[in-house]
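Lay summary. Proteins are chains of building blocks that fold into shapes, and those shapes determine what they do. In this project we predict the shape from the chain. Here is one chain we studied, written as its sequence of building blocks.
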Amino acid sequence: MKFLKKDSNRMGVFFSCAAACLLTFVSCGEAPQNVLTPQEEADGWKLLFDGKTMAGWKDYNGTTLTQPWGVVDGCIQANGQGSDASGYIVTDKEYENFELSWDWKLSKGGNSGMLYHVVERPDFAVPYVTGPEYQLIDEPNFAEPLEDWQKLGVDYAMYLPDTSKMKVNPQGEWNNSKIVFDNGHVEHWLNGVKILEFEAWTDDWYARKNSGKWSHAPEYGLAKKGVICLQDHGYPASFRNIKIKELPRKTKEVVLFNGIDLTGWEVYGTEKWYVKDSLLICESGPDKQYGYLATREYFDDFELTAEFKQEADGNSGIFIRSTVGDSVKVNGWQVEVAPKGMDTGGIYESYGRGWLIQIDDDKENILKQGDWNTMVIKVKGDNVTTILNGQEMVNFTDEKIGKGKGRIALQIHDGGGIKVLWRNLVVKTL
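And here is the predicted shape, written in a compact code that computers can read:
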């Protein structure tokens, strides 16, 4: 059924007990909705919907709310005018680790979803190419056949729930769902029962990502932090009691290069990346184009240590919080690694503002030509500090970098004739 405003008779009943009912009630006689209990408040839960307004929500990739959503009877409601390309609303705030709980009710044959870790960036026209989705769908009444990975409760196109544990209230009645995301550990719950559990960013996770629907969405599911998104997929849908409890981030140390092979990395472009004598080597290929070796994992706040030695032309770089687009186009920020006189340790924004900060001329001699150098890059919030061979090169603060998220990537510059050796690449998350 469509969720329209209550008829006049019911409205009369509603107003007759208005003195006893809050406006955030869905109807008189129900428990209060869109409120937290004292215990929930003490435990750190926060409401994402106040039951009265759309405060805290906006268009995906927008600054205000223009999509066809509104508040009806104490619920956030999608009116069903959305499509695959539009109809998405997101929270003003980003979330990393959390428990997220909400009530939902669909129209007959309805289709919607709750997405998280969604990245807002002009490069991404729709949120689902970055953010995982808890699928919401009225299976019994859906008009078309569904694949298992499209059904209720799935981690969309990735992991399937245990259907023997799923107790679903009929269409037109309220259900409750919950997502737990705890530093890569993921749980889906339905009506108080855990129906799905998996670990993100494992070998199994990457195998599923790279072999299915997301094989052509290189940034899908990689962000460790992002906005929460509700989907209007062309069917009316209602949501209430949307609440979240943030969980702490756990730090870790990761050896990015194992000295044996390229495990944990992904090659973009046709230039050469290989391992020899326990060293990671990048070398220009016959195409003489840009080439990249990117971590398959995102790193947001971190301290990276990397040793490099330049042979031949050493024009390279280390990208931070960067994403991969079409035609081997990497968007983000590069810490320069280049021959003497070319600002090694400075910061350059690709396909954007260009040089953000170059090094002082008297620091050019810190680079050791033909020998091993140690680069340390500290990224925390909107600040980036680069240290070459123990000496600070730049300390730079930038709002746009602060909003960025993405991979660490090594670069081969175009033009040919480039060869750089790498070793001891270690990242500590902050």
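What the prediction tells us: The chain has four helices and 28 strands.
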